[in-house]
Amino acid sequence: MLVRYRYRLYPSAGQRQALARVFGCARVVYNDCLRLREECHAAGEKISDSEVQRRVVTLAKLTAEREWLAQVSSVALVQACNDARRAYRNWFDSRSGKRKGRKIGHPVFRRKHRRQSIRLTRGGFCLRGPRLYVAKVGEIRVRWSRSLPSEPSSVTVIREPDGRYYASFVVERQTVPLPACGREIGIDVGLNRLAVTSTGEIIVNPRFLRRQQRRLARAQRALSRTAKGSANRAKARRRVAVLHRKVRETRLDHAHKTALRLVRDNQAVYAEDLAVSGLARTRLAKSVHDAGWTQLLRLIGEKAEQHGRGFHRIGRFVPTSQTCSACGANDGPKPLSVRTWTCAACGAVHDRDINAARNILAAGRADRLNACGGTVRPPPAVAGPAEAGTHRSVA
Ligand SMILES: [Zn+2]
After folding, report:
1. Could you tell me the pTM of the whole model?
2. Is 353 a catalytic residue?
3. Residue 377 has pLDDT above 80, yes or no
4. Which of the four, 36, 159, 214, 356, has the lowest number of CB atoms within 10 Å?
5. DSSP 4-73
């Protein structure tokens, strides 16, 4: 399976400058692509992918206001075109209903103070001894925190807003199946709690995360009070970025550990399809917690594939929070404020989330029984993350 391996980079001052140039060019090309596609769409004109690239890269280099594009590696610019194409197409297909699942927003223009990145395929980079060679930038020092499992097919070089540099390699990794076990589990990804399992386990967001989030809110307020363009603003922006990183890293670390534990202890994990659950719940709650859920579910999927375990999403609407998991009666809709309820039919007292997790487990098992014509076979592997991407999902 294809996975990403991420390492910290330590570019020299000269390399940082060269990288800034490529980041800038890739950003401009990406934005030009989006703009051009939008203009063509508005004019009712069809434009081919190669024509977009020709106009935004090849022809743009000949103009006075874009001639600096010629100074950087063209691999990075071509990949920026591809990224923009995918972002635009995903949005377009999502809007027209061609793409299933959650609605995808309009692609946003890349901005200077956000995360900067370039994607390079073979030809744009190579490994030279312990260093990463990037075309027209040089050999960058890497801290190899673990060894690469195979030759990388592509790399994304990233500069985070807090000033740190990373290389994220796409590599092929062999799966390591775990010995079979008989347990199966349903999980309900939640609002206040990260997840609740059908066994009654409550997985909370770590306390540390909440503390960081409070600090982050304070830093953000401080940033908004500074004057535009001032040195204090730059400092405040950096402080916000550092806290963002800490929140992100804490959440990711916690999600990794949780996902591994769930996959290791269970032969199969069932969860609600987010696109389905989104219909049943409020929009606001969704957007606030989305990052945590999607990340956890993505990691469970990856680890299940890595270890030969099953991960299944319930692909249909099941009223998991209204149905009694003990007797199967539908008790009617419940507002989010209702945390526990008593079944009118059988008198069972339910924690809202644990009950939902049990229903998810039951629905998932039923789905698989139907799909296999009565016998439960080993689950098919869940597709891992696609090789290409905007990289945002692998925070
Ligand atoms: Zn009941």
Report:
1. 0.75
2. yes
3. no
4. 214
5. EEEEEEE--HHHHHHHHHHHHHHHHHHHHHHHHHHHHHHTT----HHHHHIIIIIIGGGSGGGGGGGGS-
